[in-house]
Amino acid sequence: MDISSIKEAGLTEAEAKVYLALLEIGITTTGPIQEKSGVSRSILYQILNQLIEKGLASYIIKDKTKYFQASEPNKILEYIEERKSKLEQSKDKVAELLPQLLLLKKSAPESSVQIYEGFRGVQTAFEHLYLKLKKGEEYYCLGICPIQADKYHLYWKRDHVRRVKLGIKVKLLFNQGTDPSILKNRNSYKGCDARYLPVKITTPAWIQIYKNTSLIVLQSGEMAIEIVNQEITDSFKAYFENFWKKSKRFK
Asked: Residue 212 belongs to a domain with what CATH number?
């Protein structure tokens, strides 16, 4: 029998094998269980005790000998529900601790470099801005690539909806040659001002700037380098502001 589904319910492979052996054998001593399940005798009692704790097995004593038996199969569903309830409780407790955990995170040195790879990695790095920016604050993007995969355009559109709900603003400078429909789309979202760079520079990477963080994104290689350092971020912001002053509103 395939035990993968039983394992997914929260049982280890050894627990699943012993439980199935108990179901097939019925009330029995450890010998037949070990032979049927193939679980080592050295850990068999440990596995049986774990099943008993989970309510999936029980035992009786006859003539000073323990006889084990499996609980009804529907007990697995009860165990899943109980486990689900405990996970929800754990989730709530962690949620209560989250402010304290974030304070611990903030106490770490405010200077670091992290590399993120893949589409998901780029998203993760980009969305770190939501951990630092508050309503009414702003971030900046410099040298956005003219050509991007459709999955990125779809992601940016969804992210702008999130940004608008949180009341965060953004200024975007796209490389010249970017399809005008893209800038038109970005400007359709509240709090977004998208423009072309005032100079003809074509770069494979673009830079996101906010607070003390600079994110260098190479979309063609699906890689993001996150630099947390105030001086470096101030330098990138100075470049952005210089280009922004020379740029024109998109029409």
From this structure: 3.30.870.10
Question: Residues 144, 175: contact at Cβ < 8 Å?
Answer: yes
Question: Same structural domain for residues 138 and 78?
Answer: no
Same domain, 221 and 131: yes
Residue 149 DSSP code: -
Pair of tokens at residue 27: 């009330």
In angstroms, the CA 235 to CA 214 distance is 10
Question: Is 76 exposed, middle or buried, given 0-12, 13-18 or 19+ CB atoms closer than 10 A?
Answer: buried
Cα 190 from Cα 167, distance rounded (Å): 9
* CA-based nearest residue to 212, from 109, 86, 120: 109
What's the pLDDT score for residue 108?
A: 52
* 58-96 pLDDT tens trace: 898 888 899 999 888 777 777 777 777 877 888 888 888
Confidence check: pLDDT of 2 > 70: no
Structure tokens at 244: 């922004």
Q: Are strands 205-210 and 213-218 parallel, antiparallel or unpaired?
A: antiparallel
For residue 165, what pLDDT is reported? Answer: 96
Is pLDDT of 190 > 90? yes
Shortest CA distance to 156 belongs to which of 143, 166, 144?
144
